[in-house]
Automatic annotation (TrEMBL):
It comes from Pseudomonas prosekii. It is found in: Cell outer membrane. The keyword Zinc-finger does not apply. Residues 128-145 have a biased composition (Low complexity). Its main location: membrane. Keywords: Cell outer membrane, Coiled coil, Lipoprotein, Membrane, Palmitate, Signal, Transmembrane, Transmembrane beta strand. Residues 124-145 are annotated as: Disordered. This is RND transporter.
Length: 493
C-alpha cells in the first residue's frame, strides 16, 4: 500500500476520532441540560388527623402481624393459610395482572435503550440497468447494460436528548410500570379478600348446618312425643300436623344450605386455579375467631393502599407526558456515522479504493404540522387533570371505606351482644315451655312458636358473626392489607 493510500485512509479515521470526541463532549453537556415540562409535585388531597370512628381501636405498630404481609393469618386458621398460599401461586386473575406488569417492565427497558446509540450492519447485492446512450460512460458498462453492485456498511446513530424528551418518556414509563405493580398488588389483595370471605362464609354455613341438624333431631323427638300423646288420646291431630310442618320446614332449610355451601366451595376452587370437580373442602367444627385489627394512621393509608398508589403513579406518568409533548416543539439533534465498501465485483470488495464513509449531525425542526403538537399538548394536560381528579377521588373513597367498615364493626359488636342476650332468653323460654307442654299445661302450638323463636335467634347470632367476620376482612383490605407499598422498579428493568 502506498504512502498516499495510507494518508488517504488516515484522514477519515482522524475525522471519525474528532467526531467521536465532539460527540462525547456534546453528550456530557447535554446530560446536564434540563428536561422541559413540569417537575412532578404530589397533588393536594383531603387530609384528616384521625378516623371519625377510630375510638376504641389501637394504632398499628411495625411488629403487628398486619404489617408483615400475611394478613389472613390474623384469623388463626391453618387451612385458610394454605388456601391463600395456593391462590398466590395459581390464581389466574393475578397471573393476568402479573403479565401486564411484565409488559410495563419491558416498556421501561425499551425507553432506557433509546439513550444508547443504535448500530446497524448491512451487506447486499443490487443489480441495476440504465438505457444505453451515446455518452462514453456506456463503454464501461457491460454489453447488456446491467450492472452488479456489492456493498457492506456499518452505521451508528444516536439521538441527543437535549430537551429531555427521552428522559420524560422514561419517567412516564417508569411511573406506568410502578402503577402496574400497584395494580398487581391491588388485584392480589382483592383475590385474597374474596378467598377469605368465601372461606369464612363457608365455615359459618357449616355451623348453621350443625345447628339445623341438631334442631331437626330435636324436632323429630318432639314429633315422636306428640304422636305418642296423640295415640294415647292426650293431644289432638292438629298437634301432630304442627310438629310435622315444623320438622319438614327445617329439613328444607337444611337442604337449602347444601347448594349454598357448594357455591362457596366452587368459588374457592376457581380462586386457587382448580376446576370445582377436583376440589373438596371438608367440614370443620370451628369458625375462625374475629381478629383484633390494628389501624394505620390516615396519612399511612396513602402509602398502604395499592389502588391509591397506582392512581398517584398514573399522575406521575401523565405529568411526564406533558414534558414529552412540550419537547416536540424543539428541534431534534441526531448524530450519525457510517462507513463501508461498495464495488461492482465481490472479489475486491473490501479494499481501500472501494471504501466510503460519512459522519455528521442532523437537526430536525418541524415548521408546520397543522396544530398537531398543540393538540397533543392539550390532550396530555387534560389527561393530567383527569388523573389528578381520579387520584383525589381514590383517596376519598379509601377514607370512606375505612370509616364505613369501622362503624359497621362497631355496630355489629353491639348487635352481637344484644342478639346473644336474646338467644339466652329464648333458650330459657324454650326450656320452660317444653316442660309445661310435657306437664299438659299448654297446647303444642305454644311450643312451636317458642321453638321457632329460639331457632331464629340462633341463626341471627350466626348471621351477625358472619357479618362481623366479613366486615373485618373488608376493613383489612380497605387499610391496604399487608402490602408494604414498595414500588421501586429495579435498574435491570
Amino acid at each position: 500500500m502506498t504512502d498516499r493510500s495510507l494518508i488517504t485512509l488516515a484522514a477519515p479515521i482522524a475525522m471519525a476520532r474528532r467526531s467521536r470526541l465532539l460527540s462525547l463532549a456534546l453528550c456530557v453537556s447535554l446530560l446536564s441540560a434540563c428536561a422541559v415540562g413540569p417537575d412532578y409535585q404530589r397533588p393536594q388531597t383531603a387530609e384528616i388527623a384521625q378516623y371519625k370512628e377510630a375510638e376504641g381501636w389501637r394504632q398499628a405498630n411495625p411488629s403487628d402481624s398486619l404489617a408483615r404481609g400475611a394478613w389472613w393469618e390474623l384469623y388463626g386458621d391453618q387451612q385458610l393459610n394454605g388456601l391463600v398460599d395456593q391462590l398466590n401461586n395459581a390464581n389466574q386473575t393475578v397471573a393476568q395482572a402479573e403479565a401486564r406488569y411484565r409488559q410495563s417492565q419491558a416498556l421501561v427497558k425499551s425507553a432506557r435503550a433509546a439513550f444508547y446509540p443504535t448500530v446497524d450492519f448491512s451487506a447486499g447485492k443490487t443489480r441495476s440497468s440504465q438505457g444505453a446512450g451515446s455518452s462514453s460512460s456506456s463503454l464501461s458498462s457491460s454489453a447488456s447494460g446491467i450492472r452488479d453492485t456489492y456493498s457492506t456498511e456499518l452505521g451508528v446513530s444516536w439521538e441527543a436528548d437535549i430537551w429531555g424528551k427521552l428522559r420524560r418518556g422514561l419517567e412516564a414509563d417508569q411511573a406506568t410500570a410502578q402503577a402496574s405493580f400497584a395494580d398487581l398488588a391491588a388485584m392480589r389483595l382483592s383475590q385474597q379478600s374474596e378467598m377469605v370471605q368465601n372461606y369464612l362464609q363457608l365455615r359459618v354455613i357449616d355451623q348453621q348446618k350443625r345447628l339445623l341438624e341438631s334442631t331437626v333431631a330435636a324436632y323429630q323427638r318432639s314429633l315422636q312425643m306428640t304422636q305418642n300423646q296423640y295415640r294415647a288420646g292426650v293431644s289432638g291431630r292438629d298437634a301432630v300436623a304442627q310438629a310435622q310442618t315444623q320438622l319438614k320446614s327445617t329439613q328444607a332449610d337444611l337442604v337449602d344450605l347444601i347448594w349454598q355451601r357448594a357455591q362457596f366451595e366452587n368459588a374457592i376452587a376457581v380462586l386457587i386455579g382448580l376446576p370445582p370437580a377436583e376440589f373438596n373442602l371438608a367440614e370443620t367444627q370451628d369458625i375462625p375467631k374475629l381478629p383484633q385489627i390494628p389501624l394505620s394512621l390516615p396519612s399511612q393509608l396513602l402509602e398502604r393502599r395499592p389502588d391509591i398508589a397506582s392512581a398517584e403513579r398514573s399522575v406521575i406518568a401523565a405529568n411526564a407526558n406533558i414534558g414529552v409533548a412540550k419537547a416536540a416543539y424543539y428541534p431534534d439533534l441526531s448524530l450519525s456515522l457510517s462507513g463501508g465498501y461498495s464495488s461492482s465485483t465481490s472479489s475486491n470488495l473490501v479494499s481501500l479504493p472501494n471504501r466510503f464513509w460519512s459522519v455528521g449531525p442532523k437537526l430536525t425542526l418541524p415548521l408546520f404540522d397543522g396544530g398537531a403538537r398543540s393538540a397533543e399538548l392539550d390532550r396530555n394536560e387534560a389527561l393530567y387533570d383527569e388523573t389528578v381528579a381520579t387520584y383525589r377521588q381514590t383517596v376519598l373513597d379509601g377514607f370512606r371505606e375505612v370509616e364505613n367498615y369501622l362503624i359497621q364493626l362497631k355496630v355489629y359488636e353491639q348487635e352481637a351482644s344484644v342478639r346473644q342476650e336474646a338467644l339466652d332468653a329464648a333458650r330459657d323460654s324454650l326450656r320452660l315451655t317444653e316442660n309445661q307442654y310435657k306437664a299438659g299445661l299448654i297446647a303444642y302450638l305454644d311450643v312451636v312458636v317458642v321453638q321457632a323463636t329460639a331457632l331464629n335467634n340462633e341463626q341471627s347470632v350466626l348471621n351477625v358473626l358472619q357479618s362481623r367476620l366479613l366486615a373485618s376482612v373488608q376493613l383489612i383490605a380497605a387499610l391496604g392489607g399487608g402490602w408494604d407499598g414498595q414500588l421501586q422498579v429495579s435498574e435491570e428493568q
